[in-house]
Each structure stands twice: as C-alpha cells, then as structure tokens.
Design a protein that fits this description.
- The structure is a single chain.
- By secondary structure, this protein is an alpha/beta fold.
- The protein is 49% helix and 13% strand.
- The protein contains 10 helices and 10 strands.
- The longest helix has 29 residues.
- It is elongated and about 85 Å long.
- The N and C termini lie far apart (113 Å).
C-alpha cells in the first residue's frame, strides 16, 4: 500500500511539472514570467512600429560610437601643435563634441524603455530628433571643410546618417517628412505640393501651378494616369516645417490628350500654341505617334484650352 501511494504521488508531481512548463511556454516561450526585464512588451511603442524602432536604435548605436570616435580623433589631431590652436580648429573641436552629444541623446530617446514620447507621436518625435542630429552633423561638416580637415570617420558618419534617414522613410506616417519624400500632399487651401528632399533631414514643398501641371509631372515620372494614388493627407503643422520650393509649371504643349472617362466618342486633341486642335481620324493619331502617345486627363484640363483648327491629315 505504501509503495502504491508513493508511486501515485510521484506521478502527480510529474504531471504538475509538465502542466507548469506548458503554461510558462504559453506566457513567452520559456521566459521567466516573474522577471519584467525578460518581457518583449516595450509598453511605449506600437507593435507595428517596434521593428522600425529597433532597427533605428541599432543604427543609432553604431552612429554614437562613430561620432564619439570622431570627436576623440579631432581632439588628438590638434593636440600639441606648438601649444597654439586657432579659432577654426577650436570650432571643429566643439562641433565634434556637440555632434557626439547629440547622438548620445538621440540614442537615449530611441531606447525601447524610454517613456519620453507618447506612443501616438513616436514616429514624428523620433524623426524630429533625427533632424537635430542631421543639423548638428551639417554644422560639423561645414567647419571641417573650412579647416580643410576631412577624416574618413566623417564620411562614415554621413553614410550611417543616410541609413537612418532611409529607415525613417520606410516607416509610414503622414507627419514623417522622410516618408513623404516624392509624394504629393494637399494644403488647407487646396494647393497640391510635391515633397522633395533638400539636404539630409531637410525637405521642401514644391507647389503645382495647376491640375494640368500635376498630371503632366505624374506622367513624366511614369506614375500612371492617377496622381491621387500618391497623395498623402498631412497636417498644416507638418507643411509648415518645410520651406516652399520652386513652382512646378508644366503643360501638355505638343502632346495629344483625351478625356479621362468611359464616355464614348471622346475626342483626341493636339495641344499646340496654347490651343486644343481636334484630330479628325485615327490615321492622324497614328501619324503623330499612335495611341501610346495619348495622355488621359480630366475634362477640366481640356476645357481650359481654347479651340484650335482641326487636324485632318
């Protein structure tokens, strides 16, 4: 009887241990459930943004190391020059240290444990932080050019910053300037802008003069016949962060156009000398390049042109 009871207790203990292991695996694949440091939940970043944030942090670690090495290299470079150092050389030293300090702060803000930013503004705030280190790097690079000092470490920092910016560009958000690069945005007054990168971390908004300019630009970039597919809604605050660039003023002068609709018997026109000239038959279309050279545009673009003489041959 005693042996039977002992055997039964042993079996129960084995079953209890097996059940406990299953529950632990369900909690996190063998993690210590009592240890908060072993959890994958960062608590302050949305799950969709976690991979991007992690990659940005990893690149930030690499950048901080390179920036620190660059600052030390600058310090060692000017040490012991007959006990004298010029204002330009001091400028390089201070800008080197300022850039390294900016990278260290960026790294702190990017850490997954950081609760410095609200979750819903994470991407926007992290990119804003990036623009500060990009600006700091630009100031350092400018001083080094003036002092005719261009170490390899400076080029390495620029490459790492470029990788950071590309990572931000792959992180979709309407307030993320890097993501908006080469996209169209519409302002409150209905003006449509093209967002273009000006320098690292700095972007400009270029207004389209008209609907025709938008469609012509879109065709020239081989983006198809619907530019609205590339339109991103963003805030006026985000637009205000960018300088206004040169006006985009393009027309369909010298091109064949047709109304963008399913309506039957749509006319084809050649835009010539600011007028629309109807093409009388398919043979004329073929002579001017064929249907592959005909651009579909909204009716209001066609109606914006005065009538010209028909072309019948």
């Amino acid at each position: 009887m005693m042996k039977t009871a002992i055997r039964s207790i042993f079996i129960l203990l084995l079953l209890a241990g097996s059940t406990a292991c299953l529950a632990l695996s369900d909690l996190g694949g063998g993690m210590n459930a009592d240890d908060p440091s072993s959890s994958d939940d960062t608590g302050d970043a949305p799950s969709a943004g976690s991979p991007q944030r992690s990659r940005i942090y990893d690149i930030g670690v690499e950048l901080e190391r390179q920036a620190t090495a660059l600052a030390q290299e600058s310090f060692d470079h000017f040490r012991g020059w007959n006990g004298a150092i010029s204002d330009q050389e001091q400028a390089i030293l201070f800008k080197s240290e300022a850039f390294a300090a900016s990278c260290r702060l960026f790294l702190k803000l990017t850490e997954s444990q950081s609760d410095y930013f609200r979750t819903d503004y994470l991407r926007t705030n992290l990119f804003s932080s990036f623009t500060f280190i990009a600006s700091s790097f630009g100031e350092l690079e400018q001083e080094m050019k003036r002092g005719n000092v261009m170490p390899y470490a400076l080029s390495d920092c620029r490459k790492i910053l470029g990788r950071l910016e590309r990572e931000f560009g792959a992180w979709p958000d309407a307030d993320n300037l890097a993501y908006l690069d080469q996209k169209y945005v519409k302002a409150r007054d209905a003006t449509v802008y093209l967002i273009e990168k000006r320098t690292m971390g700095a972007y400009t908004k270029r207004p389209f003069k008209s609907l025709e300019s938008l469609f012509r630009y879109n065709y020239d970039r081989n983006r198809g016949k619907n530019p609205w597919e590339h339109l991103v809604e963003t805030s006026e605050e985000t637009l205000a962060k960018m300088r206004t660039g040169s006006l985009i003023d393009q027309t369909f002068e010298g091109k064949m156009i047709i109304e963008q609709s399913n309506r039957k018997n749509r006319g084809v026109y050649l835009i010539q000398d600011g007028k629309k000239r109807p093409l009388a038959n398919p043979e004329v279309v073929a002579r001017l390049g064929g249907w592959g050279k005909v651009f579909e545009v909204p009716r209001e673009i066609i109606e914006g042109y005065e009538d010209g003489e028909p072309i019948d041959r």
